[in-house]
Automatic annotation (TrEMBL):
PANTHER family: BIFUNCTIONAL HEPARAN SULFATE N-DEACETYLASE_N-SULFOTRANSFERASE, HEPARAN SULFATE SULFOTRANSFERASE. It comes from Methylomarinovum tepidoasis. Coiled coil: none annotated. It comes from the Bacteria. One of its GO terms (molecular function) is sulfotransferase activity. Residues 19-217 form the Sulfotransferase domain. This is Sulfotransferase domain-containing protein. Keywords: Glycoprotein, Transferase. It holds the Pfam family Sulfotransfer_1.
């Protein structure tokens, strides 16, 4: 985790400003789509990339990066004349022990948005996403679910997994537990929770709720195309090199890119543009089969108590999430 530093509040650091809001979770709950919509709002400066993970359990991937580097790298497009809100969307922050406290040290007025979903559907979709990201090497969800205890002991962890916690599917689905912790850390009044069911039924209403919460005007967006599907790689070895190059290569490339951006500004390097094209070409979309009924029943039993906990927190009946 970053070392505690002086509180910079919402002051500018260099040419960028520390974020006002954080879309902290949960994964596979519409956060990518919402980040895309917010990123195109004229009054919002949204992080590029969407998930820097700077304050979270994935921090070890960039140990030398300072807060100033984080702001310069993720918000080079910040325009104080135009942007009224600055935000990012690292869903790992919801689960990290110290991320929220660290963020609040830098900006005590930071706001947090959480999108939640039936955890049974969440973890099934999340597993497929981890396979695509190379954090997971067990492509069969039922087998990956059975491996959780083994992996909690530090066994059967894929070499390309960024952090073993990511593979604890039953823990990732405990949305009530982690929302309650967030409220205790940040205060309920500075947190907004939106339910995925509502987002699917009326995306504009959920979008406007978030705009009101972060303090920007309605831009009139009327189209809300879905952003995420079940992605798989055409060629797995190519995906490994593009997504998880050897550590020394990745560190060297990150250092060169940071130096280049300081000298040349915002434009992406030719290497990054080529990598983006290759990733796009190497990605195909494949529908996921429905969960087998027996496995779904097991997951419902696993998450039933936390679904009740979340429903109590939100003062909302979520009992339909426990149907098999």
């Amino acid at each position: 985790m970053p070392e505690p530093g002086p509180s910079v509040g919402t002051e500018a650091t260099g040419s960028a400003r520390f974020p006002d809001f954080f879309l902290v979770g949960a994964p596979r709950c519409g956060t990518t789509a919402m980040s895309h919509y917010l990123g195109h709002h004229p009054q919002v400066c949204f992080s590029k990339p969407k998930e820097p993970h700077f304050f979270s359990l994935l921090r070890q991937l960039m140990p030398q990066m300072t807060v100033a580097d984080y702001l310069a790298h993720c918000f080079p497009h910040y325009d104080p004349q135009r942007h009224r809100a600055v935000g990012e969307g690292s869903v790992s922050y919801l689960y990290d022990d110290t991320a929220i406290a660290t963020i609040l040290r830098h900006n005590p007025d930071a706001r947090f948005i959480v999108m939640v979903r039936n955890p049974v559907d969440l973890v099934y979709s999340y597993h497929a996403r981890l396979v695509a990201l190379l954090d997971e090497d067990e492509e069969d969800f039922a087998s990956a679910w059975r491996l959780q205890k083994t992996r909690a002991r530090g066994e059967r962890i894929p070499k390309t997994c960024r952090n073993p916690f990511l593979l604890q599917y039953a823990e990732i689905g405990q949305l009530g537990k982690y929302l309650e912790r967030l409220w205790n850390q940040a205060g309920r009044e500075r947190c907004l929770v939106q339910v995925f069911d509502d987002f699917i039924a009326d995306p504009r209403r959920v979008y406007r709720n978030i705009l009101d919460f972060i303090g920007v005007e309605d831009d009139g967006r009327a189209e809300f195309p879905p952003r995420e599907s079940n992605k798989v790689a055409r060629i797995k070895w190519l995906q490994r090199w593009l997504k998880r190059p050897p550590t020394q290569v990745a560190s060297f490339a990150a250092t060169l890119e940071h130096q280049r951006r300081r000298k040349q500004g915002k434009r992406k390097s030719a290497v990054k543009r080529l990598r983006k094209r290759l990733l796009k070409w190497n990605t195909v979309y494949r529908p996921r089969p429905p969960l087998p009924r027996e496995l779904r029943a097991e997951l419902v039993e696993t998450f039933a108590a936390d679904i009740d906990r979340l429903g109590t927190l939100l003062e909302r009946d979520l009992s339909h999430w426990k149907r098999i």
